[in-house]
Amino acid sequence: MNVRKTMRELLFNKKNFRNLALCSFLWFATIMQYEITLNYSYTTSLSYYDDSYVHSLVELTAYVSSLFVFLKLKNKRKIFMVSNMFSVIGGIVLIITDASDSLPLLNTISLFISKFGASFSY
């Protein structure tokens, strides 16, 4: 296997380069969104341990449901895009509602939606 030929084919073929750029961007966006949800993890009115328990339940639900969805359905690209959109929309709402503390329920719901989307896309 010639590594130089493979890298040349990957970088100079437009379709391969586009797919590589798109996958890299989606991976970066998912990582950043997950980190944003980790920074906002303890904004609910629960105690530290109860809050960690609820967040772990959301992540576990996302991981298990993504396993079943990816095993059963044929078109995995659309599911991945939908989960990324959940993550991005939840993150945008989370950042917008963070400026005002008058909407704690919307802040919590958007945090859980964003965390579910980011965990689902992993």
Please write out the topology.
Layout: H1 3-12, H2 14-39, H3 48-72, H4 76-98, H5 104-121
End-to-end gap = 30 Å
By DSSP, the count of extended strands is: 0
Task: Give the oligomeric state.
Answer: single chain
Strand content: under 5%
Low-pLDDT regions: none
| Fraction of helical residues | over 70%
Structural class: mainly alpha
Q: Structurally, how many domains make up the residues?
A: 1
Number of helices: 5
Radius of gyration, whole Å: 18 Å
Mean pLDDT: 77
Query: Strand count, sense and closure of the main sheet?
Result: none
The arrangement of helices and strands along the chain is: HHHHH
| General shape | elongated
General description of the model:
By secondary structure, the protein is mainly alpha-helical. The two termini are 30 Å apart. The relative contact order is 0.16. Helices cover 84% and strands 0% of the residues. The chain is elongated and about 55 Å long.
Main attributes of the structure:
mainly alpha
Concise structural overview:
With 122 residues, the protein is mainly α.
